[in-house]
Amino acid sequence: MATCRSATVEDIEPLYLMIEEYAQKGIMLPRSRAALQRQIDLFVVAEMDGKVVGCGSLCRLGTDLVEIRSLGLRDEYQGKGIGSLIVKELTEEARRQKIPKIMALTYAVDFFLRNGFEIVKKEIFPEKVWTDCVNCSKQHACDEIAVLKMLN
Fold first, then answer.
1. Distance (Å, whole) CA 126 – CA 116
2. How would you classify the pairing of strands 65-73 and 101-106?
3. pLDDT on residue 18
4. For residues 28 and 19, what is the distance between their CA atoms, to the nearest angstrom?
5. Kind and range of the H or E element at 130?
6. Confidence (pLDDT) at 26
7. Distance between CA atoms of residues 13 and 122, nearest Å
8. pLDDT of residue 62
């Protein structure tokens, strides 16, 4: 069974390799090892049998909004509920921080719908657009879907 925990500096290499694999497929923004080291406290990892099999992070975009980022699993662990476990952990962290809205840009729309999110227009998140989208190669032809979950 998988467990979730806060990431540590020992997790940087497996995080980097997992995120890089997604980035090579064009479905996740790459993160350098240096960026991961700076942002390690924002990440959670899923572990199974002592190895990191999934990850995700929360990025604050405003006083009332966080984004789930870098959500991924090693291929052989997909479909086992581990992604939902990570989203649940990140959602609880947003609750602890008293942040009422959690969003993501994704290609895995069905996954997020199963986890209580709804599809919304990207344009309602100017914080995201100005934080990341301005640096993205897909900025003017973004095909990701925005999803939102209201926490209470």
1. 22
2. parallel
3. 95
4. 7
5. helix 126-131
6. 84
7. 32
8. 85
In total, the chain counts a number of residues equal to 152
Helix (H, G, I), strand (E, B) or coil at 22: helix
Largest separation between any pair of C-alpha atoms in the chain: 42
| Rounded CA separation 9/121 (Å) | 36
| pLDDT at residue number 92 | 96
Q: Which of 116, 59, 53, 100 is nearest to 80 (CA)?
A: 53
Q: Is the dihedral of CA 10, 13, 15, 16 positive or negative?
A: positive
Q: Measured between alpha carbons, how far is 140 from 114 in angstroms, rounded to an integer?
A: 29
For 120, left (φ over 0), alpha (ψ -120 to 50), or beta?
Answer: beta
Global confidence as pTM: 0.89
Are 106 and 144 in contact, with CB atoms under 8 Å apart?
A: yes
Mean pLDDT in consecutive groups of 10 residues from the start of the chain, 152 residues? 95 96 89 95 95 95 92 93 97 96 92 97 69 55 84 86
